[in-house]
Design a protein that fits this description.
mainly alpha, globular
């Protein structure tokens, strides 16, 4: 199904070149995912002076599971090194720090769109819209390089809607080439559903709620998983070969094993059973 491999290095978090923006800009709510409350714009108490997490190797045991399933899609290093030219919150002052916290979530959304657009261009079945996808990719990349003030004022939902039209068309083209009857479960409430061994090949699962669903041994080949909520979903021995628009955060929030078959766009989470 994949046309070619693409370089996604710039769309993966690089903490070495980031000022710990996710640990500052984003809010935490005390829950099963976070051990404490933290308002947006306030540094996490575990953030060290060198912008690194002081409990990075013990996040799960310390009650910060939410941090282990988060990915900025490379927005952290973009904002740190490009938007603000390598000036961190301490050297820039309070106003600088506040503006960084405002800009980061905006660029993170744009980088997530870049992830989807980049993947869409690897899918041969989407060739009829490759030209439009490339133009949308270039436009989105250009937006990520705007100045802080322009980024904060950007209408991200409007741009996301424009891109989504192309991603929907991509999904239709790809799934049309998959044999068999495809299930349409877009936005479906499948929380806790018993889908063990289910045939979901080529299914439309965009935005589906699959929280704690039993997908053991399910066939998810060629399924559209954009925005699907896979928190605590059991993917033991499930086949996600050529599933598309799947992100690392989605996968990290699910449960799986060494027997779970994955598309090449993601890596097997280290905390999965049998993965250490």
């Amino acid at each position: 199904m994949r046309e070619q491999k693409v370089d996604r290095d710039g769309l993966r978090g690089d903490c070495e070149n980031c000022f710990g923006l996710c640990c500052v800009a984003l809010p935490f709510a005390r829950s099963a995912d976070f051990a404490l409350d933290k308002p947006a714009g306030t540094p996490c108490p575990n953030l060290r002076e060198d912008h690194r997490c002081g409990i990075h190797t013990r996040l799960r045991e310390k009650g910060f599971t939410g941090c282990t399933v988060y990915d900025c899609f490379g927005a952290g290093q973009k904002v740190s090194q490009v938007t603000f030219g390598g000036r961190d919150r301490r050297t820039g002052g309070p106003e600088h720090s506040r503006r960084m916290a405002e800009v980061f979530p905006v660029v993170r959304q744009l980088h997530e769109l870049l992830w989807y657009l980049t993947e869409a261009l690897t899918l041969p079945a989407a060739r009829p819209v490759h030209g439009e996808l490339r133009r949308a990719l270039e436009r989105t990349e250009a937006l990520t390089r705007l100045g802080p003030g322009e980024l904060v004022a950007l209408d991200v939902p409007a741009h996301r809607q424009e891109v989504n039209v192309l991603l929907l068309r991509t999904s239709e083209l790809v799934r049309a080439g998959i044999p068999g009857r495809k299930k349409e479960r877009r936005g479906a409430d499948l929380m806790g559903a018993r889908l063990k061994g289910a045939n979901l090949r080529g299914a439309n699962l965009r935005g589906a709620y699959l929280i704690a669903a039993d997908l053991t041994g399910a066939d998810l080949r060629g399924a559209d998983l954009i925005g699907a909520d896979l928190r605590d979903a059991d993917l033991t021995d499930a086949d996600l070969t050529d599933a598309f628009f799947l992100t690392q955060p989605q996968l990290a929030a699910a449960r799986g094993t060494a027997g779970t078959r994955l598309p090449g766009s993601v890596v097997r989470p280290a905390h999965w059973a049998g993965q250490g």
